[in-house]
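During the second half of the funding period, the structural biology subgroup turned its attention to how the target accommodates small molecules. The most pressing case was iron/sulfur cluster, which had performed well in the primary screen but for which no bound structure existed. We therefore specified the complex as follows and requested a full 3D prediction, including the ligand pose.
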Amino acid sequence: MTDPKHFQQRVFTWFDDHGRKDLPWQQGLSPYRVWVSEIMLQQTQVKTVIPYFETFMQVFPTVEALAAASEDQVLHLWTGLGYYARARNLLRCAQVIVDEHGGKFPDSIEALEQLPGIGRSTAGAIRSIAFGKPAAILDGNVKRVLARHAAIPGWPGQTAVHRELWEIAGALSPKQRPAQYTQAMMDLGATVCLRSKPLCEICPLQTDCKAHLQGTQADYPGRKPRKTLPVRTTTMLIISNASSEIFLAKRPPTGIWGGLWSFPELDQANQATDFCLDTFGAQPARIEPGSALRHTFSHYHLDIQPLYLKLDQTGGNIMDGDGQLWYNLSSPERIGMAAPVSKLLKSIDK
Ligand code: SF4
């Protein structure tokens, strides 16, 4: 294996010249800010995260403020970032930090890993960046750099490959400047060792990077064995009333889009009139199908057929606060919504 000191030296020299030092969570550094940023950065790029992070910090400047929030408030600020389990865990974790840790984040990997939503790599990032203590990380970007540098074959989702990459990550992590090293490795993966066209000519690791020397960068990390995703279908009822408000219902707390607000869904479009009679005691005055859209989850495609229904009445017998509400497009409620729901609402808005 490559000499860790030599590896670290090159990473640090590169970081001093090219690493990112002006990210919002690097300013006013605190475990709370680092933790929120790390959770947002899971599966999401820095440029997408920045505006969400800034709004989040304005609304919840401390872990205590976040712990006191409702799930709806948190999901509302998360709308569009995806992977909503992260937001629900974020709230639960803030509550545990306040209730069980006196509002202070622990700094050991073991204690951090006990917290909701914090895995080993996120724990390493928090410990190294927020506390300046040595810890390895292995997020998606770092996996790519290390798998290419040492030419580790196989898909990192496989236990043996995953373990090998962790061993390398641990062996290469320095005792000195752990925060900069963590940031540098994330930056190298995000800005130089790009997924499809790595910029090896400007990479500090090119002299002993096996994939670069062999010209096999595209082979690493190995791909997940391909599976054709199944397709499911659903009909979403976009019901408007005489005041042009849209009917939304809160989804159950677990499962797809758990706790988010959505349109009612039916398996069959021809059940729409019965749904309106049962829910509002009235028939829709108009029913029109909209253009279908596809939303892809990690394990299936969901083909959504929107059906626009117009009621002549105003409120119907719907009580707000009962897991159902009439959504006013001109003064929208602060609630969390699944991405396709927010997209469909925006299309009505226009
Ligand atoms: S030399 Fe190329 S493939 Fe190797 S780590 Fe650097 S950018 Fe990635």
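Two results from this model are relevant to the next phase. Residues 145, 148-149, 192-193, 198-200, 203, 205-206, 209, 211-212, 217 surround iron/sulfur cluster (CB under 6 Å). The chain has a mean pLDDT of 93.
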